[in-house]
Design goal:
By secondary structure, this protein is of the alpha+beta class. It is built from 30 helices and ten strands. The strands form three sheets. Strands 3, 4, 5, 6, 7 and 8 form a six-stranded antiparallel beta sheet that branches. A two-stranded antiparallel ribbon has the order 1-2. It has a two-stranded antiparallel sheet with strand order 9-10. It comes from Crucibulum laeve.
Length: 660
């Protein structure tokens, strides 16, 4: 009797559940799937279903099966697994090295899907003889499945969770090291991808076909079969292992090599496997993971990730050019293959839905010919989005064309598209929403976003100086720091934070223009960092005016301190220096002096200390944005100002504040 027959007899044999089974016959296939061939698991689920049917009738079938399995985990299965595993004395009697046992079990535990013996040997470098010897002595919990595509698998997929959970597996006679073996498999996967040229050239014999039928029928199956199972596994799971493992120099080295030489080949593999849709998520998560490691020269590697993402986006727009072939026309360092794979129509439709920004050119109408504002690197025009009965105000951001020389227009356009690519994926209440792109406002793509009727933070503070309460000022700063914290969590540095780039709508602050300064500086050299365009020097961290400047998260924290000064005092940084003598601001910064404290009674000692906290002379002295956020909230929750000598005690939050 197989599991399906067994469960069918159990469900039909219970009068209590017979009616439910008759109206939900699909429950049988769902339970069979979750049992994974394990009779003990199937029996435990059937028992739990009968005992708790009334409370679970409202769940759909998958939810029901998951709930049943959860109950099984904490009862029958834990007992089953503990009983199936040999004791420490029994393991000592085996003619096996404990390290060999731990190596095999640790590898099987971290695998993302079952593999054959040959694939495990290839991906983990564990000799097949060692794997077989361990399996023969632990057949109660691990075995090789029967059939043409036999794989090695545990008694149940939940066994891996049990094995690594010290609160469940109390004996711990089989030690597992999940971080270490995830790192090992990550390195192995990346080495396979980095050294797969022989296999790749073999596959390219199929991929060289330039007919649209490449991805259909028998020919497509032949191409998929040309990718060995270990290489397929590496394509799908290299980052899952990398992000779950220990960070080692070898792993980082292989990762950087993969990005610089084999990433486009990897995209070709994914297309052949029909998995191109997972590439963007993997690369975005890889970008965040790498940035969090705070590694040396991290931003050149982040640039590589972003360029691969752009190649992925561009590939969706070209019907007859492969990812590799098209990108090879502009740069040859990212891949060493000569494939000519066509992106399939299905994948292209899916990728276009995910990646391509909305082109609003037909619906955008300029309000007037002159720009209405702008920041350090872009002009802002007011316009209207008109589509049928919809007529709403929008802002159009146009990157100034004089920043870049003509010979590099194509590369600049690419960088702008990169910023658009990341902007449209951001989703936070304190980040200015991205609506789409439009043309006709300059030589580059222009970005469309909502019109923020209250203007930027500087204008808002001026217009509401008499009526703006302390509580509303605190809320504005909380909005700003929340927006920065979200950007940093996405591995994005604003790089040009000042009051002009913080927009206000109905008392809520939103950040804009993040990232523009970072890529524009690439086309203007280090001297750009020392420029005073738009008065940005007042808000900029001093280290950006020395040799070899580098924009970091600490720069955003310094600029946030400047924004806090403006919010609580109504004065911009270095308000004692007029714009006509902007060079004096640079001299003050380069001599290590921070902006002086304005004499304003709302700017109490406690807030001034917080601003100085953000202005640490060295980057290492500044808090990260999460710590700054925590301290700001703590200060705002104590508006009495007891820590600052009771100065705020005389102010009432519900009344308008008059500046001295």
């Amino acid at each position: 009797m197989d599991i399906e027959q067994y469960l069918d007899s159990r469900l039909k044999g219970s009068a209590r559940i017979h009616a439910f089974y008759a109206t939900n016959p699909n429950i049988l296939s769902v339970l069979v799937e979750h049992a994974e061939g394990n009779f003990a698991c199937a029996d435990a689920m059937a028992t739990n279903l009968v005992a708790n049917l009334e409370s679970w009738k409202t769940l759909n079938l998958n939810q029901l099966a998951n709930r049943l399995m959860k109950n099984v985990f904490t009862s029958q299965l834990d007992y089953l697994y503990t009983s199936a595993l040999p004791s420490e004395e029994e393991i000592d009697q085996l003619a096996l090295d404990k390290e060999d046992i731990a190596e095999v079990f640790s590898t099987l535990t971290v695998l993302r899907e079952p593999l054959s013996l040959q694939s495990i040997e290839s991906i983990s470098n564990i000799p097949a003889e060692q794997v077989i010897e361990v399996i023969e002595n632990f057949q109660s919990v691990v075995w090789i499945s029967e059939g043409q595509n036999s794989v090695i698998r545990f008694i149940h997929s939940s066994f891996s969770d049990f094995l690594v959970d010290k609160s469940r597996y109390l004996a711990s006679t089989i030690p597992t090291n999940v971080p270490e073996y995830n790192n090992r498999l990550a390195v192995s996967c990346l080495q396979l991808l980095n050294g797969s040229s022989i296999r790749h050239e073999k596959i390219c014999q199929f991929l060289g076909c330039s007919t649209p039928s490449l991805h259909s029928g028998v020919q497509h199956d032949r191409v998929k079969k040309g990718i060995p199972p270990p290489l397929r596994y590496a394509c799908l799971h290299w980052f899952a292992h990398l992000s779950s493992g220990n960070v080692t120099e070898t792993a980082i080295e292989q990762f950087e090599r993969f990005l610089s030489t084999r990433s486009l080949v990897w995209l070709e593999y994914l297309e052949v496997l029909g998995k191109l849709d997972i590439a963007a998520e993997i690369l975005l998560n890889a970008r965040i993971w790498y940035e969090k490691q705070a590694l040396k020269d991290e931003y050149s590697t982040l640039d590589l990730i972003e360029e691969v993402l752009i190649e992925l986006e561009e590939s969706q727009k070209v019907e007859t050019t492969s990812i590799y072939q098209r990108s090879n026309q502009s740069r040859t360092s990212l891949a060493s293959s000569h494939c000519n794979t066509h992106i399939s129509r299905g994948s292209r439709r899916m990728a276009r839905r995910d990646f391509t920004p909305a082109d609003l050119s037909s619906y955008i109408h300029r309000d007037q010919s002159m720009c209405v504002g702008g920041g350090s690197h872009a002009d802002v025009y007011k316009g209207f989005y008109i589509n049928g009965s919809i007529n709403t105000e929008v802002a159009i951001k146009v990157v100034r064309s004089h920043f870049c020389i003509d010979e590099r227009k194509q590369e600049v356009n690419k960088r702008i598209r990169r910023e658009i690519w990341f902007w449209q994926r951001l989703n936070h209440p304190n980040i200015l929403p991205f609506l789409g792109v439009t043309s006709g406002f300059g030589i580059y793509l222009s970005m469309v976003c909502p019109w923020m009727k209250d203007g930027n933070l500087g204008e808002y503070l001026t217009n509401t100086e008499i009526t703006l309460t302390l509580k509303r000022r605190q809320k504005l700063l909380e909005d700003v720091v929340a927006g920065i914290q979200y950007l940093h969590s996405q591995a994005i540095i604003h790089g040009d934070l000042n009051s002009a780039n913080i927009l206000i709508h109905e008392d809520k602050a939103c950040l804009s223009d993040f990232g523009l300064s970072c890529f524009i500086s690439r086309f203007n050299g280090p001297s750009f960092m020392r420029s005073t365009v738009g008065g940005a020097a007042r808000w900029t961290a001093p280290e950006l005016y020395f040799e070899h400047p580098k924009i970091t998260k600490a720069c955003d924290v310094y600029s946030f301190g400047c924004v806090a000064l403006h919010v609580f005092s109504g004065e911009i940084p270095f308000c004692n220096i007029t714009s006509a003598y902007e060079v004096r601001v640079l001299m003050e910064l380069m001599q290590g002096r921070h902006p002086p404290r304005p004499i304003k009674h709302i700017l109490t000692d406690v807030y001034w200390d917080f601003i100085l906290f953000c202005w640490g002379t060295c980057m290492e002295d500044r808090p990260d944005i999460a710590e700054a956020n925590t301290r700001l909230l703590k200060i705002n929750n104590d508006p009495s100002g007891r820590q600052s000598g009771g100065v705020i005690n005389q102010l009432r939050e519900d009344e308008a504040l008059q500046f001295q």
